[in-house]
Specification:
Blueprint lengths: L1 E10 L2 E12 L5 E4 L4 H16 L9 E7 L11 H12 L11 E3 L2 E2 L5 E2 L4 H10 L4 E5 L3 H5 L5 E5 L2 H9 L38 H13 L3 E4 L6 H7 L9 H13 L15 E2 L7 H5 E2 L5 E2 L1 H4 L4 E4 L7 H6 L1 H6 L1 E6 L2 E6 L3 E6 L20 H8 L4 H5 L3 E4 L5 H4 L9 H18 L13 H7 L4 H12 L5 H17 L7 H12 L5 H9 L1
Parallel strand pairs: 3-4, 5-8, 8-9, 10-17, 10-18, 11-14, 14-17
Antiparallel strand pairs: 1-2, 2-4, 6-7, 12-13, 15-16
Helix pairs in contact: 1-2, 6-16, 6-19, 18-19, 19-20
Length: 530
């Protein structure tokens, strides 16, 4: 006797549909799982046997049971195969089981010994993989039904137990079962975490017109940003308000981001889909695995992937281990990160905005103007501190700003009325809308995504600005990579100013943003008027 069900195996962010083939035959009585299972999958046999028996069904005890997880050369990890294995064994052992109901169905859940189901991480990418293969029904734990339901074209059945699954397949009355525990618990400390950033607004930042404009340009084009300045100058304050001027995610972006957080097991109960760009700010003592991803047993996404389509803020960035800093080169350049662990290789998206913040010296008191300089560090210490920002990393940063502490008259200026995040977000949204129209038939969304050759060939600067940018390269003031990034920033400035093609003024602003040169506020005012 033979039956087949389907489940999904995850390799990084990719889901592969698995045929769970169950064969009952004469021979030595034993149960064998083949197809490169890990320890959790091998242990599924004991869980499934107890779940079947305690659900009122009979586990075949007089036959040899062979369970093939096909394709057999793909590693299988995790407990989410339990339900598919249990249903396959029941279908193979019962000649009257409606096997036609299994043809386009996928089963994703862990089983407890009494037959109840439990939630599993990574459900969303599994359901997306099932839809790609043309499967149209999924059976998932009840609390995760909303998460699976955001995938179009899939009929979702939220279940509480193995008995409910078999009843649905047979078309009979569905028995009652206790509610399934949610995938994660409520936070123990409600006054910490990202919720503390919900009430921040850009209008909290007084003066700092230079830094505020740099934030706006970075948000418009998705550019990486480096903030330097003495301690207490407002670097963290600026970085925490960057997500507030980013527009909401569209449906496809929400799916991408939610899939990453589903893989990491970080979706909160009652929040099946993420609609706002994330803000991640790991401590500088975080490990390489925590920031980049990895882990033993199963590779998980790190902070750089959890910040996909949002902001990854690395404060005190020179204090990070050097290998972590240098490993950021790949996500900065390509927008994704590949992690290899033994026989497993996982690629995760990492196309977020990287915001680096650091003091100009270890004591944090250095200032370029002698009248304000209170630094107690030697020049050797300052040099060693700055050396953590290597040339290749600095070359991948689009915008660099030196943040100066506010003067007394700026703090108490009664005339200034800072713009709110809502006002700036409207301009950023309009600029991004222009980019979507410009790149409509391409795989790119934002200016920061477009490779250099495509920029030069299809979206060049005007001739005068092009000659100026080339002279910067020929004069040794910019590398070719740096010139490409200035070109991208110039387009973001033009999108904010509603200029059809970046010209000399837009290029001048982009160069100043790149080189940390103070901006000409008169020039910016002309841009706002336009």
């Amino acid at each position: 006797m033979w039956a087949r069900t389907r489940a999904v195996a995850l390799v990084g962010a990719l889901g592969h549909v698995i045929d769970v083939q169950v064969d009952l035959s004469q021979g030595q009585i034993r149960t064998a799982v083949v197809g490169r299972p890990d320890a959790a999958v091998n242990e599924a046999i004991d869980r499934c046997r107890a779940a079947v028996d305690n659900s009122g069904f009979s586990w075949p005890t007089s036959r040899r049971i062979t369970i093939l997880l096909s394709p057999a050369d793909l590693p299988k990890r995790g407990t989410h195969l339990d339900l598919a294995i249990a249903v396959g064994v029941l279908a193979a052992s019962d000649g009257e089981f409606p096997r036609g109901e299994l043809d386009d169905a996928v089963f994703i859940a862990e089983l407890t010994l009494d037959g109840r189901v439990r939630c599993v991480p990574g459900l969303l990418p599994m359901v997306m993989a099932a839809r790609t293969r043309g499967l149209r029904r999924v059976y998932v734990p009840e609390p995760q039904a909303a998460e699976a339901g955001i995938v179009d074209g899939i009929e979702v059945f939220g279940v509480r137990s193995l008995a409910q699954v078999t009843a649905l397949l047979r078309g009979g009355p569905v028995p009652d079962a206790p509610p399934v525990e949610p995938p994660t618990g409520d936070p123990l400390v409600t006054w910490r975490g990202e919720q503390r950033l919900e009430d921040v607004d850009l209008c909290d930042v007084r003066a700092m017109a230079d830094a505020r404009y740099a934030l706006e340009v970075a948000a418009a084009g998705g550019h990486h940003l480096l903030l330097t300045g003495p301690k207490g100058a407002g670097k963290t304050t600026l970085a925490e308000r960057l997500p507030t001027i980013l527009p909401d995610l569209d449906h496809e972006e929400s799916l991408e981001l939610t899939a990453v957080h589903s893989l990491a097991g970080g979706l909160r109960p009652g929040t099946p889909v993420l609609t706002r760009p994330p803000f991640r700010a790991p401590h500088h003592t975080a490990s390489r695995t925590g920031i980049l991803g990895g882990g033993t047993g199963r590779v998980r996404p790190g902070e750089v992937s959890k910040a996909h389509l949002g902001v990854l803020f690395l404060d005190e960035f020179p204090l990070l281990p050097s290998d972590v800093v240098e490993a950021l080169r790949q996500p900065l350049e390509s927008g994704e990160i590949t992690i290899a662990r033994g026989d497993e290789e996982a690629t995760y998206p990492a196309r977020g905005m990287l915001v680096l913040a650091c003091n100009p010296c270890p004591c944090g008191e250095y200032h370029p103007y002698n009248r304000d300089n209170q630094c107690r560090c030697s020049e050797l210490k300052r040099r060693e501190y700055r050396r953590k920002i290597s040339g290749p990393i600095a070359d991948r940063i689009d915008i660099t700003r030196f943040v100066e502490p506010l003067k007394d008259h700026e703090v108490n200026d009664p005339i200034e009325v800072p713009e709110s995040s809502a006002i700036v977000r409207a301009r950023v949204t309009a600029a991004r809308r222009r980019q979507l129209q410009r790149y409509a038939d391409t795989p790119w969304r934002l200016n920061s995504h477009v490779p250099g050759p495509a920029l030069r060939n299809q979206w060049p600067l005007d001739p005068s600005a092009t000659r100026r940018l080339d002279s910067e390269v020929y004069g040794g003031l910019l590398t070719r990579r740096g010139a490409t990034r200035v070109h991208r920033v110039a387009w973001s400035v033009a999108d904010l100013r509603c200029v059809p093609v970046p010209g000399d003024e837009e290029l001048e602003i982009a160069l100043r943003l790149r080189k940390a040169t103070p901006l000409d506020l008169v020039m910016l005012a002309r841009g706002e008027a336009a």
